[in-house]
Amino acid sequence: MVRCRALVPFVPLVLAGSAALALAQQDKDFSKVEIKATKVAGNIYMLEGAGGNIAASVGDDGIAIVDDQFAPLADKIRAALKALGITEKPVRFVINTHYHTDHIGENARYHAKGAILCAQANVAVQAAKDTTIPEWGQWHRRPAPAAGLPTLSFGDSLRLRWNGETIVMWHAPAAHTDGDAILWLPGRNLIHAGDIVEVGATPFIDWWAGGTLDGMIVAVDRIMALADAKTVIVPGHGETVNRAWLESYRDMLVTGRTRARAAIAAGQSRTDFIATRPFAEWEARLGGERQARALASLIYYGLNGMKL
Asked: Judging by beta carbons within 10 Å of its beta carbon (0-12, 13-18, 19+), is residue 5 exposed, middle or buried?
C-alpha cells in the first residue's frame, strides 16, 4: 500500500561532472552499457549503469525506484533485477531526485506501464524546458516528453510508506538544481543524495536551472544531520560513501567558495583564478587537474553573477 502525506573574451565553460556525462551520452551506444546491481541494505539495491545511480526497494508492494537513467536501458535494468530473482515484481513507483536526462530518461516507459512518477514540483518545470546554453558550446537541453513528467509532485517534503518501511523525501532548494530531492530511509539508515553528491567526478551546479553553491552546501549539511557513522549514502554517481567522506566533500565546497569569493573581490579573472589551482588538495578525488579546473571555472562563473 502507498501512503503519502506532506511534511512540513569569450571562453566557454568546461563541462563537468554529471553535466559532461549527460552531454557525452546523448549519442552513446547503450548496447555496450552493463548494469551492475548491488545489495546495499536489506531489500534495497543500487543499480549502476550509464546514468545516475538507481536505488530500488523491493517487496510486497512491488518495486519503487529512485531515478531511472536513460530510456534505452530499461530492458537492461529489468534484466539486472531478474538476475536478483525479483523480476516478477512490477515497478510501481518512480522517484526522481532532479530533472536531468540521465536520471529521468525512462520515466515515460514506466508511466506507460502504470507507474506513479514522483518528484519535487520544480522537476516538471525544468524538464519541460527547451534550452540552449551558449556557455556549454551551445548545448541543447531537449524537453522531456509529456508522458515522462511527474504525475505526483511535492513542495517541501513527502513521506511514503512502501514495502513496510518509510521513505522520506526532502526538497533541497537551489542546490544542484532548484528541484533536488534527498531521499531518507530511516529504517535502513540509508540516504540517496542524487547529484548533490558525486563520487569520482566533478560536482556540478546547474546555475541555469536554479542551482547554487550555497544551496549545495546547505543540502550537504542536511544530509550530514541525518547521517551517523554507519549511514550508507548513495550518490548520484559513483560508489556509496559514509558521513566521514561527506565531511571532506563539504570542506572542499566551502573552501572553493571562500577562494572564489576572494578572487572575485580582488578583481581576479576567471582564467587567473583557475590557474591558481584552487582545488589542488582535492584533484585526486575529482579525477585529476582537468576536472578540478572545471569545478573552479564553474564556481567562479556562478559566484561572479554568471559572467565569464
From this structure: exposed
Q: 250 by DSSP, 3-state: which?
A: helix
Q: What is the pTM of this model?
A: 0.90
Quick one: which of 84, 66, 60 has its CA closest to 164?
Answer: 60
Integer Cα distance of 38 and 190 in angstroms: 14
Break the chain into its structural domains and give their ranges: 3-239
| 157-187 residue pLDDT tens | 999 999 999 999 999 999 999 999 999 999 9
User: Residue 92: how many CB atoms within 10 A of its CB?
Assistant: 17
Q: How confident is the model at residue 227 (pLDDT cuts 50, 70, 90)?
A: very high
Euclidean distance between CA atoms 185 and 180, whole angstroms:
17
CATH T-level topology, domain 3-239: Metallo-beta-lactamase; Chain A (3.60.15)
